[in-house]
Structure of FAM192A/Fyv6 N-terminal domain-containing protein:
Amino acid sequence: MAGKEMTPNSKAAAPPATIRLVNFISEDQLDEVKRTRGERVEDGTAQRDKPLFQILQENKEKKDAEFNERFKHRPPKALDEDETEFLDKLALSRKEYEQQVANEEAEQLRGFHEAVAARSTVVHELETPTVSRPELKLNYASTYPCLGEQT
């Protein structure tokens, strides 16, 4: 601080404050403290009977239960205009989607019924008895000798 003058109004540098770190104690003193207050899990003097994960899980569940209990009796917040508009649009789009799915299902079902009906018509045409013509069988028999024996 060469060149600076010290005046009564200027603040003099205070002596550095002593920083106190954790007081260390001897093992004898630690044993004495354990006997007087008992062993504790928090300071590592006692062994845990549960895994750390389970302890943390229980603490979390306890906090969640306390939080839910605080807000359980609070009345629900009223919806504002934007929220109601969003919910209305969501309901409308859901209804349109369900209608579209129902229409597609009806169209597919109608197509299936038409295909079944067309197929059954073809089967009925094949099953209807035809009038046999004996003269045709004879002509086939003369042309194709193996067919005359099968009839």
